[in-house]
């Protein structure tokens, strides 16, 4: 799950925003690994010139809850 999804679930369970942010600070590297996993699973190859494919892949990751920063 993405950091965004985890944060939403924790907030729904009543965890304070401060505690959520503190807990998720260390998870950046793990999130990057998850993005790489989804990219490999979808068959995305870096360096393709096809903008449409890039946009589709970016939209897929966004729907999974990943930010555009990664």
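Q: What amino acid sequence fits the structure above?
A:
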């Amino acid at each position: 799950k993405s950091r965004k999804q985890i944060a939403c679930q924790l907030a729904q369970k009543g965890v304070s925003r401060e505690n959520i942010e503190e807990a998720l600070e260390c998870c950046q590297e793990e999130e990057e690994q998850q993005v790489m996993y989804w990219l490999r699973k979808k068959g995305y190859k870096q360096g393709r010139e096809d903008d449409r494919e890039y946009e589709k892949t970016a939209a897929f990751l966004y729907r999974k809850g990943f930010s555009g920063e990664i």
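Q: And what stands out in the fold?
A: Residues 28-42 form the longest helix (15 residues).
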